[in-house]
Structure formats: C-alpha cells, structure tokens
Amino acid sequence: MKYRSRIGIIGSLIILFWVLLCVRLFKIQVFQGEEHRTKLIAQSHRKESIFAERGNIYDRNNDALTRNIAHYTISVNPKKITNKTLLAKELQNVTGKDFNYYTDKLNSKRNFIFLERNIKNDVLSNKKLSSIKGLNINKQYRRAYPHGSIAGQILGYTDTDDIGISGIEKDYNKFLSGTSGHIIKSKGWTGKYQHKSGLPNVPAINGDNIKLTIDLNYQSILQEELERRRKETNAISAMGIIMNPQTGAILAMASLPNFDNNYFSKYKVETHHSRVITDQFEPGSTFKIVAAVAGLTEKKISLTEEFNCENGAFDYFGYKIKDHESYGQLTLSQIIKHSSNIGVIKIAEKIGSKALYKYARDFGFGLATNLGLNGETSGTLKPEKKWSKISVGQISMGHEVAVSTLQLATAFSAIANDGYLVKPYIVEHIIDQNSKVIIKNNIQIKRKISTENIMKELKKMLRQVVDSGTGIEADIEGWEVAGKTGTAQKYINGKYSNEHFISNFVGFLPASKPQLLSAIILDEPDSPMHWGGQGAAVAFKRIMQRIINMDDKISPPLKNQIKKKINKYLVSNKKKKNNSYPIPMQLNTINTKKGVRVPDVRGKSLKKAMNIISDAGLKPLIQGSGKVISQNPSPGTIMHNKIFCTLQLQ
Length: 650
Hints:
Number of helices: 21
Distance between the termini: 153 Å
Strand content: 15-25%
Helix content: 25-40%
Low-confidence stretches: 560-566, 568-593
Number of domains: 4
CATH superfamily of the largest domain: DD-peptidase/beta-lactamase superfamily
Shape: elongated
CATH topology of the largest domain: Beta-lactamase
Number of strands: 29
C-alpha cells in the first residue's frame, strides 16, 4: 500500500507532465505556429534585393551621354569575423589603403559597419576576399558622365543612392530608375546562402532609356565658343541655345560657368542649373520684332511709311531717348536694320498698348514654354492695365520686360518658320528595355502669330540687319544669315546703368529656308563688345561656321540660284534690246574680274535703289529719305576693295 500510493503520485505527475507538454506543443504548433515559422525562415532564409540598372540618356545620334559603372559596397558585423587580419590584408590588396585603417574598423564594438562604399574595383574577382564568412558584398551601379561638363546642366546628376537630384536625371527619375526586384536564399549546411528552386525570385525591371534632341557635337561647339567669347569679352557669364526653328527641337543649350557632373560637389551650386531656362533679363533691341509684327499685322503701319527719328534724340514724356547714331526719316525696315529706339517708339505709339501687349503674349513672352524641364521661368510682362504712360515706348525697345534665352529663341523661331509659335522640346522619346516607345514628342504648334507674307518681310529686314546693319559681324558668306542685335542696359539700384550691359544676338540661317536658329547672350562684357553686334554676334558666327562646316545635313541656299538668275536675265536681254536696265548690275560686271561696276540709282526710290545696289554685290549706306539725289562712288566706277555705296536721299 505504501508503494502503491507513491506509484500513483509519480504516475499522476508523469501524466500531468505529458498533458502540459501536449498543451505546450499544441500552443506552439497551432497558436504560435506562424510566429515560429517566421522566425525559422528568418534564421534560415535571407531576402536580397536585386537592384535595377538605371536607364541611360542618349543624344539625337544615339551617342551615350550617361553610363552605369559597377560599384561595390562591403559591410560586415565585426563580431562574426574570426580572422580579422586576413580580411584586412585582402582589403588592402584590393583598395591600396592602409592595413590599420581596416583593423581599426574591424575592432569596432558595433554590430554593423561599412568597410567600403561605392568602390570601382572588381571585388568579386578576389576569391579569397569573397569567400570570407560573414562578409557582405553588394554590387550596385553608379552613374557616370563620359563627356564631363558637356551638357552637364541639361543632364544633371544622381545622389549616392542613384536617385536623380538635378536636370533630366531628376525630372525623369521615375522613368530612368526602374523597379528593384528581390530573391530569397536559404542557408545551407556550410553556412552559405544559396537560391533554391521554389523560393521566390522577383526579377528587377531596368529603367527606361531617354533619347534627347540634343546633338553632342553641336553642344560641344556651343560650349567651347561661349567660353572663348566670355574670356575675350571678360563677361561674367554667357548663355546660348541652338534649335530647329521649324520643329522646336533643342539641339544645344548651355550657360557658363558650368560644372562637371562627375564631380558636382566641387562646384558652386549656382553653376548646376541651366540659366538658359531659369534666368531672365531685359532683351533690349531684339524685342523690337514684336512692335514690327504687331504694326504690320494690325495694318497700323506700312512697309513704305517713314518715321521721323529726330536725328538721334527724342523727348518721350520727359525721358530722353537716344539712338546710337543720328537718323532722320526711316522706314520700318531701316528702323530694324539700324536698331533705332526712337523709330520703334514712334511705331509703338501708333500701335497702342493693347495690341503691343497682345503680340508680346502671342510671341510667348510672360509665359513658360513648357520645355519639359523643371525650374523654367515665365519671364516678366506686366498686364497692360498696369502699364505707365511710357511703358508702350519702353517695352517696344525691350525695357520693362524680362525674357529667358529660351523664350527669345522660340519667339524668333516664329519669324523663321513663317508665323507659327512652336513648343520647344528637348526629349525626343522614351523607350523601355524592350525597345518599346513609351513617350514620343511630336511637333506642337501653339498658335499662328501672323501671316506668311508678313513674316517673310520680317525675314528680309532681319537679313538686312546682318547684311549691312548692326549685325554685320554675324554674316557668313553664302549662307543668308538673318538676325537681330540687342544691347540692353542692366537695371541696377532702381535705374538703368550706363556701364553694365547685356549683349545679345538672335539669328538663323539660311533666311530663305531656316534650318538652324541660335540665341547668344553675354552678361556685362567689356566695351565696345557690350554692343550686341560686337559681342554676341561674333560668337554666333563662329558657332554657325563650325556647325555648317561639320554637318552636311545643313543645306546652304541653292548654289545655282545666281546662275539661274543670270540665264534668266540674259534671255530677257536678247528679247528686249530696248530695255534700259535689262540685267542687274552684278551681271554686267561678270567680265570685270578686277572689280565691281557701280550702278546708277539716281532718281530712284529707296527700295528700288537698295535692291539694285544689293544685286550688284554692294552694300548701301543710306543718308536721308525720299529719292536718291546723289551717290558715292559715282555711277560706272569700278570698285576694287570697297563694298559700300553711300546714297544721299531727299
């Protein structure tokens, strides 16, 4: 009996133990099963990210503007490294850094440290290093810019996590970045993690590629010539843009000083953005196209109407307005050619504030162009109701209004393409990794500003500016360059400065069928290069000369045009023997190998005289208005070295 009771107690305890054990096992398997399975998986499995490769950016000829270079990041838990000396030596062999640098890190009491971040050396090729247990080696891609500062402000750059923080890299980051994937690896008996079939494997989706309208060669030329002219003129900065005036495609765009994307942290932040789209300035005389187009379109003025330019000085509501030279009666064409402030004010007063404001808006001033890059300024154009009594005159000659280089180029494109304001764009298309086009930019016309005939007249005027006016330094023989100079006084401390200027020039070629347009701006160049025709126009000519010599796709005016004209007049001369002036004078001088014979234009109107003189290959200098009463050199003179012919009108 004594033992039976003991056996009962022991048996009860054993049964109770098994009951409690079963309850515990039931709790673990049923109630806490998911929790423990998660812990088990966490201990035996590891989730590794698969980084997406960032999409690249290309120019219009598919030249790569960016590259992705493999970088390695090495991290470790120092407590799990058994042979720290071996690891330090192998790292020293790879990076060349001091041995003690790594031993100090490995002796750290922290649970996680980075031994190296973003090194370019191929770490995985070192078998000894990659086989060390407890060492984490992550391969990632870092952005590189193979052309350095070329198009740097357009492209922008990425941070250490490969996220775009400037330029195209930032504005199109969602397309370029792609989507990361992941893979689950299980821990084997050796302690290494390996992927096994059946475990999740989500592949990464690489970023999309972007093709720009930028031409790498154009961009290089633009930046080189801007820097050259900036140094020559001692300007504090320079800006330039080249575009296709027919489509709005931006072919090159730069502002100086600039920076190298690969080492962006070494440059001042203000050099990182493209001031072509972010900065605004008063344009000066390049804005005179607005009054000219408004006056002709609204039929407030005519091509033959003359305006009194007051011999270079004019009192405008108490403000003294001066021209750089003294002029008397000038037509619209002559006002544009000689860039007369007084003349354009007289035109603007006939137009009125409402029409002037309307056409300024039609040309896109005071409105962002929506190029596709963030940070673009809309410029400054006050509402017409806020204009003062002198605003009409001031705005007509490019004061009281601020524009960006991009806006100015876009406005002149409307003249070059016969009246259409096109939307500029810099991204041609975006394609995914399967070469499927996701986004494609096409030509977009915002509005029609004026008629084709009026714009053709404006092109003729702008051609005269370069041929024999203020923009003669921009002329390229045989290419029919048209353009407009601008010299704007900077507004400093509440008044216009007489020492600090903006020199600018906008031009396109060939005038008969424009294929290229460029706007050049110099900020505070030295005198006399502060004049648009002396500073910016020179840079324009150099840039265009280099491009047309390089790019065979840019076609000059029809080479046999003169030949056809000669044949036409020769045939006409045979049929009409009594014609007093059957052939333009340059045809009469074909056999005069040593010079050009001056034609007789006495008694003729200004327009007819200018046409005859120009046809003879000479450049007219106009004095007075009315009809030609005298000319110098006299008719019939053979010109050997001189190219100008002075016409006195009355």
